[in-house]
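Input for the complex:
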Amino acid sequence: MKKVFKVKEGVLLAERNNILYVLDVDSGRVHEFNETARAIFQICMEPVSLEEIVKEYTQYFDIPESEAEKDISEVLTVMIENGLLEDGKGDANHH
Amino acid sequence: MTGKGPPSLAYRDLFSRYHDYRRLLVALACRLREDFTCERVSIFLRASGNRFLTIVAQGVEGMTIDVKPGEGIAGKALQQKRSLIVNDPAHDPRSLCRVRDHYTGFRTRCLLAVPGMDVWGRPLGAFMLLNSVKGRFTNGERERLERLTWMIRKIKKIAPRRIRNIWTPQLEEEILDEEGFQG
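Predicted:
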């Protein structure tokens, strides 16, 4: 089974000046997401594998996969460290 | 479309025939959907706290969508006071459609958002059309919808103070039967 990523339940969202603010209701913390992180956050609204995140992300910004992987890795690490993703194994969505 | 006469007259006809604002709004949404051959129509109106709420959102029962200026495509159209066509919102960095689709269960493939302003140029609300049956919205459709934003001013005048999404499948079914629109 592939490792999949999904945004946890219990977050509230607001957008202002192109920054996405994500309130984690459990921890009470507010996270600010720039355009890059916002795209990755949205892709992870449904369970997705790393390969699918890369594929979707390159369509957002029209960049090579190698560059996308670097951005995605950094953002996913921060999101996992802050408890915003449920990471596990399972069936990813196939769009 | 199955309307009588030119499109604008067909919309004016609905305002003169429907005196219940809930039925009027659903009839307007159904006519817009048929006229622009799309899957869904939402109408946003300004509420307190500089928020914009859906007063009708086809396919979304019991949920009122709330946007602030700048949020998502509808919010950006309202903030920038200009119409926006997005023909691949799932991969557009300005869009939040994946978030909305997650909560509504819908899949947005393309959208057209057109704001309506009051006489001082302040945004009063917006039309949002989702998923053109042809696959994408055109500038011609944008211009045609912009010519219908007079309806937002009329809707604002008759809307209750407390805005909420009044759409239900039962109400839509009744209107479709009465008007002979396509479902």
